[in-house]
Structure to design on (326 residues):
């Protein structure tokens, strides 16, 4: 008889198969483990890509604020006609400063916001627009030469870039309280907004609510701004009728400059736009006449203020060229 206390002998093959059967996990557990592994692999790739992707910053410049603040600080006036601003040099300085503040970030571009009559680029704005990595955005100018629509342009760009994760940091150069909403919108999408300003001779030139809202603040002093602002001595008063010790230009010289400005406007603004002036001959709209004067003075390097005869010659040259083209 067989002793019931004795277990039947198992072959070595049977002994090996038995535990193997118990160690094999069920099918659904194997599927879960595989899904977890795929997820881990995906996260590893995503994290590796994020680690190697640099952050991005952009610089948003309210040109009206820069002209007014830098002009006041360096030249003692906010009147653009009284000083020259080296916009290209100043933009490069802003870019260089951003490189030191955001060392691990790349520049998307510089946005330069300014005003212009009927949003048509002036010669200066055209030169700025041709700079690499610079985008000129134009609001309008009213009859008092005040910018209109610039703040809304800044908000649109700042919010859009932040929403699409195109930037992680924004350097905002401005001072208007209306920019608070732009800052809030960008921050709502995770971007950090850094307010840059220009030193004010006395008090502040940036709204306090704007200062409270941003993530950081930085101010550029006189030494930073001075190389980029040059006062135009030719716009001082000429009580004796002289041109700061230089001989007055002749009528033919000024007439030629008037034709030059007309040719530049035709090239930059288009024939249809300039042709709108023809029905008003020989009178130019006040804003257009002022713009003609400013650009002619820049070409001459002399002021024509207080010289009615030369200003008439300037208009004559302007009309002469238009009449040869239409």
């Amino acid at each position: 008889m067989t002793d019931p206390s004795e277990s039947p002998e198992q072959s070595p093959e049977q002994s090996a198969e038995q535990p193997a059967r118990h160690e094999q996990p069920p099918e659904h557990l194997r599927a879960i483990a595989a899904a977890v592994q795929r997820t881990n692999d995906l996260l590893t790739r995503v994290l590796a890509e994020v680690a190697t992707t640099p952050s991005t910053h952009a610089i948003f410049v309210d040109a009206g604020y820069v002209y007014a603040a830098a002009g006041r600080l360096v030249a003692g006036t906010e009147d653009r006609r009284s000083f020259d601003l080296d916009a290209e040099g100043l933009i490069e300085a802003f870019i260089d400063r951003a490189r030191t503040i955001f060392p691990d970030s790349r520049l998307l571009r510089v946005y330069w916001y300014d005003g212009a009559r009927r949003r048509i680029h002036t010669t200066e704005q055209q030169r700025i627009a041709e700079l690499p990595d610079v985008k000129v955005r134009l609001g309008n100018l009213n009859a008092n030469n005040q910018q209109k629509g610039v703040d809304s342009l800044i908000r649109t760009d700042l919010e859009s870039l932040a929403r699409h994760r195109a930037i992680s940091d924004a350097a905002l150069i401005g001072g208007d309280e209306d920019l608070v909403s732009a800052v809030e919108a960008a921050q709502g999408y995770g971007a950090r907004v850094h307010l840059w300003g220009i030193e004010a001779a006395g008090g502040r030139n940036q709204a306090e609510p704007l200062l409270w809202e941003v993530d950081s603040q930085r101010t550029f002093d006189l030494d930073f701004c001075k190389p980029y602002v040059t006062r135009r001595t030719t716009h001082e008063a000429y009580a004796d009728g002289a041109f700061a010790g230089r001989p007055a230009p002749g009528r033919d010289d000024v007439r030629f400059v008037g034709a030059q400005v007309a040719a530049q406007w035709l090239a930059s603004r288009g024939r249809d736009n300039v042709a709108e002036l023809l029905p008003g001959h020989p009178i130019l709209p006040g804003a257009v006449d002022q713009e003609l004067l400013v650009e002619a003075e820049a070409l001459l390097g002399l002021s024509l203020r207080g010289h009615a005869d030369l200003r008439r010659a300037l208009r004559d040259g302007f009309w002469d060229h238009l009449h040869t083209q239409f």
